[in-house]
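Hi support team,

I'm opening this ticket because the web form for multi-chain structure prediction keeps timing out on my end. I have pasted the exact lines I submitted so you can reproduce it. The total is 1292 residues across three entries, so I didn't expect it to be a heavy job. Is there a limit I'm missing, or should I split the entries? Thanks in advance, R.K.
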Amino acid sequence: MTNHYIDLKNSDCILIMGSNAAENHPIAFKWILRAKDRGAKIIHVDPRFTRTSARCDYHVPLRSGTDIAFLGGMIKHIIDNNMIQEEYVQYYTNASQIVNPDYAFNDGLFSGYNAEKRGYNKDTWTTKKDEKGIPVRDYTLQDPNCVYQVLKRHYDRYTLDKVSSITGVSKENLLKVYNEYGATGAKDKAGTECYALGWTHHTVGSQNIRAMSIIQLLLGNMGVCGGGINALRGEPNVQGSTDHAILYNILPGYLKMPSGSVDTLAKYNEKNTPKSSDPMSVNWYQNYPKYSVSFLKAIWGDKATPENEFGYSWLPKIDDGKHYSIMHATDQMYAGKMKGFFAYGSNIAVSSPNSNKVRKGLQKLQWLVNVNIFDNETASFWKGPGVDPKTVDTEVFLLPAAASMEKEGSQSNSGRLVQWRYKAANPPGDALSDGDISMKIMDAVRELYQKEGGACPEQVLNLKWDYKDAFGKFNALKVAQQINGQYVKDVTIEDPTGKTPPEVNKKGECVPTFVKLMADGSTSCGNWIMGGSFDQKGLNKMQKRGKEDPTGLGLFAEWAYAWPVNRRIIYNRASCDLEGKPYNPKMKLLEWVGDKWVGDVPDGPAPPMADKEKGKYPFIMKVDGVGALFGPGMVEGPFAEHYEPLEGPLAKNPMSAQLTNPAMTVFKSDLDKVANADAKFPYVCTTYSATEHWCSGFTRWQPWLLEAMPEAYVEISEKLAGSLGIKNGEKVKVSSIRGEVKCVAMVTKRMTPFTVEGKVVHQVGMPCNYGWFNPEKTDNDATNLLTIAVGCANTFCPEYKCLMVNVTKA
Amino acid sequence: MKQELVKLIDLSRCTACRGCQIACKQWNELPASKTHNSGSYQNPPDLQWNTWTLIRFQEHVDSKGTLKWLFRKDGCMHCTDAACAKVCPTEALYHTQFGSVSLHVDKCIGCKECIVACPFGVPKYDETTNKIYKCDLCYTRLNGNQPPACVQSCPTGTLQIGAKDAMLKKAYSRAKELGGDANVYGDKFVDGTHVIYVLPEKAEVYENLPADPKVPLSIVVWKDVLKPAGLLVAGGVVAGAFLHYITKGPKTPDEETTSEGGKQI
Amino acid sequence: MKKGMIKATGPAERVVHWCVALSCLLLCITGMGMMYHSLNFIGTLVGGMGNLKLVHNFGGIFFTASLVCTILMWWKEAGVFSFPEDAEWIKAAGGYLWHVDNVPEVGKYNPGQKMFFLTVALFGAGMVVSGFIMWFPLGFSVKLVRLMYVLHALGFVVIFAFFFIHLYLVTIGAPGSAPAMFTGWVTKAWVKKQHPKWLKEMEKHGTLVVSGDEKTS
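Hello R.K., no limit was hit. The queue was backed up. Here is the completed structure from your submission:
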């Protein structure tokens, strides 16, 4: 979240799209209700009428996978009707910059496309700079090649008729949402967007969010109270695990994962440190080397020296152009190219797409380690449906883990709020915390390396590995301090003016903020964004529980710690005008008073832009200091464009000749079958998690939750059920070209057919929480037997939300 | 000290997360039943001896054709004129100092009279223990100055508990704020319930919710008429017999010497 | 035994009568123990209210059996009125409530007894049916069960009242009746007073059994 949960209450209009907030974020939903109490409009756009829809002002049904068309139409509507926050667009976004004349967009493809590589050369996705290297700007936004005009042209094709025909949303509903949300373009109004897996689980997942970011920038909703673009993240500490690099392509703190060709630290830093010649741009990432070097110091400790490039060469590198997502991993597994696999707190035989392929892949492993709080379909894959245990050679280890309440540590919520959580109970039996399990395994590996040696000994033996307490147990506090960062030697910083006494920092003290990190190896920091979660003396700010809120805006600055530097709303300087006065005087998030900012922790102390000498642009993390309407960061283009899902009901994209995302990776194994616009699988299916169950469903072992949601079901409309002769509560078979599952038909008014390109398209929905391994025998199995292993072109988040199925009586 | 409490259920805020349903089971240590999906989110399908509160799910299309998904937390209403307590032969069901209707489980003899009497269908019978069970508004928690488990668990503010007057005031102002068909349900019958709903729709719309609940007439006749009448009539008969005896005297046989077949008197 | 006593009842009759009387009494007492909280102490006597309910329920079975025997045994004699004399007797209230010069002669059972019998039979059956439904209320519709409560309570009120009338009449209200229930032998004078027609009938049919000369008849 750019903002935070409590801030949702400050909004004037909340668009819940790509999220089922009430069901999947039931606690957070109370802030949405608070906003409603204040008179905010709450809009739910979703293929299904859910428990969220029930509490919104209204629900707008939309065909799965057509969000960009919907949002593209909104962009056009906002521009056509001049609903933008003009000053904001002029000065706080790159609307005024001039796009490279060689940039082009033609019938679904941006300039630079290479069909063979299924990717783009981004050389033309740039904006013009003057001789000093400063972006050229036309603040009147009239230059036909300025970002604003190019944006306008790009979305001109997203007419109401077109959008309605693609999405299946009535024009009346489109206008209702566009006008209601567009109204937040007023300076003193804020609109926010809540999304979750409903947006990320698409081949265009990142672009869904990009499209919304464009809207938020146009309406001046970024950086303001009650605004922002807010990812509602999951209970499994998704925010925390992402911050700490659960993904293959990042290092902690969103540092870039090095690849093979970047073979020196200097090259790595050079590649990843953006440069700006614009004196008004803070370009915060110019500090990149400080964070990367401090990270290496945290990993290798004393072994990291300037002479050995702080051990950069020991870091694992990914192969250039290769990806290592779970779908790539299971593809390799299925191809027989993987020896062993750690399924750590995961149940991929249920949770990964195209589970048949995953399960076959597991059979080709030599060994599998599953760390979990219950036995599950992954650990027991060898006795699963259709598997003869005698034919499986994989050796499986099931390690019992402590549940989240049985261990101490930090937990990050969606609003970047990192709270220390205490242990409530000891884990049962032999179960250990993940930290202890990791320690034990690595201890044993290091011992073996010391005795026998092995491949890559430096990585194993040079690792800084001192996270145990006096009893030899994993100590989360030690790890947290390492993550925060420490001075690894005494550091004295003289005041160049000599007015104040020199600042003395002792070896072993915590780094009080990441601003103090250094690139010379004087500091260590496991994750720079967490720099400041401890104070210099080692006080754990994540344990703070102050309940004061002097702003009345729900910032609660004294409650725990929010990265970065306890900033509760990021890009908050954009909430003020060029003079530093808040756009919405009723919500004074920040205000420039005299010579300083008052309110939330500002994005840097620099004065607002009106100060011609020292003033800075508000978007300090962006190289040019402004919000990116034109965003070259994504792999499939600087603007979001509608493409159909890999498996959908249409044979032709109504928007362009390019049917599907041109930059996505398509897997080619014999089990990666696709049935696009295939009469055998006529219904669009989306999958999701029920409130009552957790992800792949270990909650099925909790009798009360199982009682509440006992078995798999498919939600289908009364119309479709009527035409198929299916009665409510009846057993049905749902099949895709990849697999089939039995479940109960839930015939409901909450599902409605769509009219798409003049034809009726039925949509069904299934929860993903069920599997074959249950306390009592059922005929259930994983919904992901049906889903398709393809993902977002940027993140490889699988497309769980769109596939084509058939439904028949069981 | 008697302090009447009211649990306010503002259904306009309910997201049917069912936290209350589970929290109730957890606090009261109620086991789960084996259930099946019958084509609804609602499960268990009804209140049970081991399910004291339940979210009911109902799809409703209003007169304007708008689809509404109605959620209702069902459970004991804690009536002031509580039919269950009225019929309970052993005073196992009783009113607490908070106005709620609690249960001395050990006193229950499994007669099931309360089950039949309750206008809301709340008490449920367990064959294994031969007892009925129902929500007691977490009497032990109230005594410990804690809110009931359901209220504690509610994330959205749907469930609140407080002094009767304050809650009623809140309920009416909320219903007014919501406008339309929104109404307050609970204070106008059975001398007022200690669970009050703010219903976004008319009461008639909700399944399993009587629009005009009352202690059944038969129960009133039984307990308020026939029960005292039993004693009155029996007493009257005894008194009458006594009066008859002393005024008219017994109908004594004539002396044995009376001639055979002779007419009497 | 005094000579000249007349045999009014047989052993079977007396057993059945006692059964129905005792079970009725038992049900009244246990029922009241449940109906009136102030009488809950009755439950203590049998080890708790749960047991009291058991006693009541199974006492009900005993009562049902007794009632069936009662009805079978006395239906013909006590269940059918004979006209016009019974109507006249009723008009005169059998001479019990006020002194009447001319009460129609009654047979073995006077209309009062017949009415009592019918009341017991009718309400007893009602008690049996409603009691059974109340015992297993979940097998029936709520509306029906609720009606059964009223019926059961009403039956109680009526039977309880009649029970006292009956008790009064057979004890001090009409002295000499009680022995019919214990030994079966009553005085001739009593029969002559209470059931003259029956005496005549017995004499006429030669079914009269008089103590001391049993063997002769």
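A quick check on our side: The first strand of chain A starts at residue 13 and ends at 17. Let us know if the file doesn't open in your viewer.
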